[in-house]
Amino acid sequence: MSEENGHVGLILVSHSAKLAEGLADLLSQVAGPAVRIVTTAGAVDGSLGTNGGAVLEAMQRAAADGGAVVLVDLGSSILAVRAALAELSDEELAHVAVADAPLVEGAVSAAVAASTGCTLEEAVRAAEEARVVTKL
Amino acid sequence: MSSPSSELVERSVRLPDGVALHARPAGALVRAAAAFAADVHVSANGRRANAKSILDVLALGAEGGAELRIDASGEDAVAAAEHLVLLVPELV
C-alpha cells in the first residue's frame, strides 16, 4: 500500500539533468522534504537525451516503495516512459502513473499534493490540474 | 443559519514584510489548508484562489506585506481560518 512508506513520490523524466535537478530543488522547497523526488534525466553519457533503462529502474523502485507519479518533459522522454510502462508488471502498474501535464507546474502541484499524504490518483489529478490553471 | 457549517468564515491577515507568497511560503500555506476538510480560499490583489491549490495560490502574486483575506466554509471552517491567521505571520 502506498501509505506504508509515507508519501507518494515523483519521478521526473527529462532530457536535461540540470533541468530535472533544478526542478527537484524547487520541489523540495515548495513541498518540503517528505516527498521523494527521483530524477532520470540525460542520456547514459550525460549528454542531453533520455535513458530508458534508468526510467524503468526508477519506476520499478518507486512501485515497490510507496508509488510515484511520473512527469515528463517532451518527445523521447515520453517514448522512454511508454517503453518502461510496457515492462512493468500489473502489480507495479498499480503504483506508478504518468501525468499528462506540463513538467514544472505539474510537478509542483503533484509534489505539494503528495506532501499532504494524498493517494497516487489524487497526485496525478493535482498534476493534471496544471493544464487549466492560468499563470497570469 | 445557526449551524457554523453553513456560514462563510472570513478573516484577514497580513503577510510579513519581505515575504511574498512565492514557492516556499505558498507551499506551507497550501499544506496547512489541505489538513482541513473545509473549503478554504485566500484572496489578494482582487483574485481569489483555492487555498489547497499551489498553482492557484502562486498565481495570486501576493507581495510581502500584502493583506490576505481568508474565507472558509464547511465543518471545520473556523479552525481552518484561524489556523491560517496564525500561520501567515510566521511564514518565511
How would you characterize the overall build of this protein?
- The complex is a heterodimer of chains A (136) and B (92).
- Chain A is α/β, with parallel strands linked by helices and 136 residues long.
- Chain A has a single domain (9-129), classed as Phosphotransferase system, mannose-type IIA component (Rossmann fold).
- Chain A has helices at residues 17-31, 52-63, 76-87, 90-93, 103-115, 120-129, and strands at residues 9-14, 37-41, 68-72, 96-98.
- The radius of gyration of chain A is 13 Å and the shape is globular.
- Chain A starts with 8 loop residues before the first strand and ends in a 7-residue tail after the last helix.
- With 92 residues, chain B is α+β, with helices and mostly antiparallel strands.
- A four-stranded antiparallel β-sheet of chain B has the order 1-4-2-3.
- Classes of the chains: A alpha/beta (136), B alpha+beta (92).
- Chain A binds chain B through residues 26, 29-32, 105, 108-109, 112-113, 115-116, 126, 129-130, 133-136, and chain B through 23-24, 26-27, 30-31, 34-35, 53-56, 58-59.
Supply the CATH superfamily name of chain B.
Answer: HPr-like
**Widest β-sheet, arrangement of strands of chain A:** 2-1-3-4
By oligomeric state, this entry counts as heterodimer
Tertiary shape of chain A = globular
CATH class placement of chain A? Alpha Beta
Give the terminus-to-terminus CA distance of chain A. Answer: 39 Å
Structural class assignment of chain A: alpha/beta
Which regions of chain B are unreliable across 5 or more consecutive residues at pLDDT < 50? none
**End-to-end gap of chain B:** 38 Å
- In which range does the helix fraction of chain A lie? 40-55%
Which properties best describe this structure?
heterodimer, A: 136 residues, alpha/beta, Rossmann fold, four-stranded parallel β-sheet, 6 helices, 4 strands, 49% helix, 14% strand, disordered N terminus, B: 92 residues, alpha+beta, Histidine-containing Protein, Chain: A, four-stranded antiparallel β-sheet, 3 helices, 25% strand, globular
